[in-house]
Write a structure and sequence with these properties.
Layout lengths: L1 H9 L6 E6 L2 H8 L2 H7 L13 H11 L3 E6 L7 H15 L3
Parallel strand pairs: 1-2
Helix pairs in contact: 1-4
Amino acid sequence: ELTAVISALSLLKEPCQVELYSDSKYVIDALEKGWAWGWKKRGWVKSDKKPALNPDLWEQLLALTQVHKLTCHWVKGHAENPYNNRCDQLAVAESRKFK
């Protein structure tokens, strides 16, 4: 999920207002609740003193959030959301190319 958001934001040619829809509570909560900024401030350590995962990806994403204005929306995965279901189908199809 992190890589997908980073890739999408990196394609934008100028600062944009972005409506980010994701079924990843990890991504949405880390951005909306400020967890990722806290992890960075603590040297990529979470509040429970465990290392934060994927600090390299979070660094990239946090830098992009300084360029673009994100409004985050969590959507339930594997539910009746046709857009989310389509994104899931595309992601699965791509991942199968690397097996």
